[in-house]
Write a sequence for this structure.
């Protein structure tokens, strides 16, 4: 057992692990618990697929916590910097649904059906702004109840040479 941990720490970490809902929070608690149970920092880092420095920081934060600190708040993920997601308005949902109800040929495209790339290009031209990513489009389509399928090719008329082709085999 690591010198900073005792049996009570193991019990508290196990209880917190049972209540953890976020994957990153679970991973942090699990790594600290492994160290508390006697595994090395290196082994806990390897099993958690994080750096040794991360496991050291999590163990240090746990060891230096004030008494009766909420473990969920202690090892929970802090807000990250970065640009927040742009909210998608209802109008955008209506525009997307209206576009999908039409064939691409209506808008002048030489395509029998919508592809993600074609849909992204069309929406960028229609609405302006940055081109939506494929993952954003998939997420929006799913939220709107649309299902994305690969096209099935169907012959319009039977092949007149089919009987001859089958006879050769």
């Amino acid at each position: 057992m690591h010198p900073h941990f005792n049996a009570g720490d193991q019990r508290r970490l196990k209880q917190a692990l049972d209540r953890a809902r976020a994957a990153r929070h679970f991973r942090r608690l699990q790594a600290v618990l492994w160290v508390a149970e006697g595994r090395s920092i290196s082994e806990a880092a390897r099993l958690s697929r994080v750096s040794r420095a991360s496991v050291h920081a999590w163990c240090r934060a746990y060891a230096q916590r004030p008494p009766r600190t909420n473990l969920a708040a202690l090892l929970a993920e802090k807000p990250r910097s970065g640009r927040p997601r742009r909210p998608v308005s209802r109008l955008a949902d209506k525009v997307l649904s209206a576009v999908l109800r039409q064939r691409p040929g209506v808008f002048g495209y030489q395509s029998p059906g919508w592809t993600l790339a074609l849909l992204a290009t069309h929406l960028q031209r229609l609405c302006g702004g940055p081109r939506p990513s494929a993952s954003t489009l998939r997420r929006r389509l799913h939220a709107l109840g649309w299902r994305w399928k690969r096209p099935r090719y169907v012959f319009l008329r039977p092949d007149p040479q089919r009987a001859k082709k089958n006879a050769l085999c």
